[in-house]
Amino acid sequence: MRVFVTGATGFVGSAVVKVLIGAGHQVLGLSRSDAGVESLAAAGAEPHRGDLQDLESLRSGAAKSDGVIHTAFIHDFSRFIENCEIDRRAIEVLGEVLAGTDRPLIVTSGVALLAPGRLATEDDETPSNPNFPRVSEQAAASFVARGVRASAVRLAPSVHGDGDHGFVPLLIGLARQKGVSAYVGEGLNRWPAVHRLDAAQLYRLALEKGPAGARYYGTAEEGVPFREIAEVIGRRLNLPVVSKSPEEAADHFGWFTRFAAIDCPSSSAKTQELLGWRPKQPGLIADLDRPPYFQS
User: Fold this and answer.
1) For 21-30, what is the mean pLDDT?
2) Do the Cβ atoms of 242 and 182 come closer than 8 Å?
3) Measured between alpha carbons, how far is residue 269 from residues 90, 149, 277 in Å?
């Protein structure tokens, strides 16, 4: 299968490219830079110049392919609502090209804000409110009735592995800056996690086997207590590990306070049953407790 991958040079997307090529697929990878073009070519993919706001590049990439995996997103949380709108327009363009073909379109979402305080599952509907402005799932689902095999991968808040530049490295940076590794309250709030290579295998299986309208959970671990994450960071950096009250947390974590305190355990049991997905990579704590995460 010839697969158009957006975000093909990103942390998750580059792993998807590697897994797809390893499974015998051809990959057309979206890149907005010369360096990205070079890395895609070196990985054995065909580079395709463009970005999420270059709608013509998205049209042409989808038109040349047997399916699309959409992992790209502009991760600037100061412009989150605007970036969600850019994401929606990109998905609509991809869906228009695939309409009436029964070709797969896999988009990306998350589990963190779906069901705080209880175990989230694939049966949970995507909220439609100002607190959850990302509309990738709704945008893709609107094309199911138009003959697109659209589905969504809901990723854990921590997708980890070498090259991680997400939430856990942010916590490491905050600990270095503040001189302590912190958690909120008792630190028992849980974060789901998945290794990037396991997540990439999930995208591949969704492409090859997934039915239209499905929601898949990229959560290899249902919930890692936040305090355990803080303890590894403190030990590796030789810093105190401290509890912050909700009021103190805002000073330590800043805009990230809500995520640092959220309890969002999530199950991938139905995903594993439907697709035969079996995560095999190290868990978050074992992966974090290695030198690569702490090389500055």
Assistant:
1) 98
2) yes
3) 30, 22, 9
